[in-house]
Amino acid sequence: MPNAAVLEKFVRPLLAGKRAECRHIVQSELEKSSDPSTVYRNLLWPAMERVDKLFQEDRINAAAEAMATRINRAIADQIQLRLKQSSSNGKRILISCADGEPEELGAQMTADLFEARGWEVYFLGGAIPNDEILNLVGQLRPTILLIFGTSPSGVPGVRKLVDLIREVSSNPTMNIIVSGGVFNRAEGLWTEVNADLYAATAHEAIVVAESAKPRPAVVPVSGVKKKRRRRRRSSILAVATENTSSAVATAH
Q1: Burial, 119: exposed, middle or buried (Cβ in 10 Å; 0-12, 13-18, 19+)?
Q2: Structural domain of residue 123, as residue ranges?
Q3: If pLDDT is split at 50, 70 and 90, which confidence band does 225 have?
Q4: What's the predicted TM-score (pTM) here?
Q5: Bridge partner residues of 146 (DSSP)
Q6: Are residue 100 and residue 176 in the same domain, yes or no?
Q7: What CATH number corresponds to the domain at position 74?
């Protein structure tokens, strides 16, 4: 569990853009732990969530969010080199995220922790077109596709991507996990984009991914044309996307 006192001590200079002070606090925490991943879990991740919450509530401005995010990412880059690497587990994960520095940070830390667990990780980052993600799914055939930190305006695009992947069926046993961003703020939204699984944090995503069974492969029946059903757009998808989009637009 995060140490509240240490977290508060770290967040203050983080929001003020005091890089050296933040590094000193992190170094002190690293010296106390034999497992550097605990610093990801107990300090960097909750600090990232705190910054995001403050920004969403318009309690900090874009400059403070940007400085805090970049300090956290620079520290994560350094800690990644210290993470203990498990032997390969034979599983592969493809990770994408929304196009934004905070989302890239969360997705990067998620990628680092999966890699340390023995997964073969392919980290895309943000702003990758759906058709290119679809092509990679077919080429790499990952066990998991993880979509992290989706913004409200990106929810319809996630739904389109999931539906496209299922329609093409180039990797039918792959599970799709969504995590972070608007999915953490709108309960049940992950089901409305037809994802298979949901996880709030990187550590939860690892637990969910490693316990997930492959999706049942649906074999098309020869000579029978699959009838496409028109899905009614769920109110939770429309309302969550519209309301959260308005909040983000106001904050910016």
Answers
A1: buried
A2: 92-211
A3: very low
A4: 0.84
A5: 95, 177
A6: yes
A7: 1.10.1240.10
